[in-house]
Structures are given as C-alpha cells and as structure tokens.
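Comment thread on ticket #2218

A.B. wrote:
> Attaching the input chain for the structure job we discussed in standup.
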Amino acid sequence: TPILLGTVIGAVAWGKIDGHPDSFSAFVTSWFGFFPLSVGLYALAMVAFLAAVYLTVEATETDLQEDFRRKALGSAFVLGAMAAEVLAAASFDAPEILHDLTRTRWSWALHAVTAVAAIGAIVALWRRFFRWARLLAAAQVSMIIWGWAFSQYPHLVKPDLSLYEAAAPPFTLQLLLLALAAGSLILVPSMYYLFRVFGKIGGPPIT
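C.D. wrote:
> Ran it. Output below, let me know if you need it in another format.
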C-alpha cells in the first residue's frame, strides 16, 4: 500500500498523466514511470521508518525495544538514501518538480527544518530518547509531505487540474462541513473509549 500510494502521488506530481490515452499501455505508462516508482519506494521507506520509531515507544520489553531501535536507525539511513535517489530521478525525469523543491522561496527553509528533524530523530534514537525520536520523526515526515504539497500547489493533477477547478460548489462544501461536525459527535467519544480500553489515555486498560 505505501508503494502504490507513493507511486500515485509521484505520478500526480510528475505531470505526465495522459487524460485521453490512445491505448491501455499508454495509460499504464503515464502512471508507472521511473519518477513515480521512485516516489513509491520512498514512501515505503518513510512508513517503515515511522513504524520502527513508534514501536520503540510501544515496546514493553528491553530486547524488543532495542530491536526496533536498530531497525529505526537502519531505516533512517535508507530513507535518506531514497530521498537522494528521488531528487536524482527528478533531475532528469521531472525537472519542474526539482525546480519547485530547490529554487523557490520556501524550499530551503523547509529543507532546513526537515534536516534538523531528521538528524534530531537519529540522535534521539542513538541516545535512546524514544519519545523525542517519535516526535522528531513525525515532524520530519510532516515536513516532507508539506514539501510535496507546496511544490504541487496550485495543481491537484499537473498540469491540467488545479485545486480551484476540482473544488465542489460552496453549498456542497458547507454541507460537508456540517456532516463532519455531526459525525465528530460520534467519532470523538468512540475514539476516546477505544484508547481508554487499551490504556493509551486515562490510566490502565479497562478489563
């Protein structure tokens, strides 16, 4: 699933999706180019890193915690290598994305924050500050996702469909907000009870 999700994101950002392909192979090729597949593998490395970091906090046995720590450190370096590979793929397969990620006003500030979070997560893992590692890893991945969003803006699917063109009519959006507000009255208490049952909040698990 992370590979397919990343591949779809990469294809959408790639800007080469053929909306009117003349054959099935042309349609498939527009989704499974080198750059989209690179982003798919990058997404897999990102999810593996997050999972390992989060499990260092969840593990209750020292040996298991150390095992997840080693996996988290290894996946952190794999994630860095995959980030370099995606930038290399963009340099010849998606130069517009590379430009947006490296030559805009916000790009270097975003990269700096991402780098600080990434290095901080590795240091925290090395020093066994697992809760700090979880916080910094989440910040790192959040910055990566925001970087994609900023480079994509204002397009939803490059180059043909913008966010404004894809938006529903105002009345539909208002109804959606009302539905979300009504649904949250059921969802929020249910989520609280779920976490309470498993002891994540409010004390020991309910037995």
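A.B. wrote:
> Thanks. Noting for the ticket: The chain has two domains: 2-163, 168-207.
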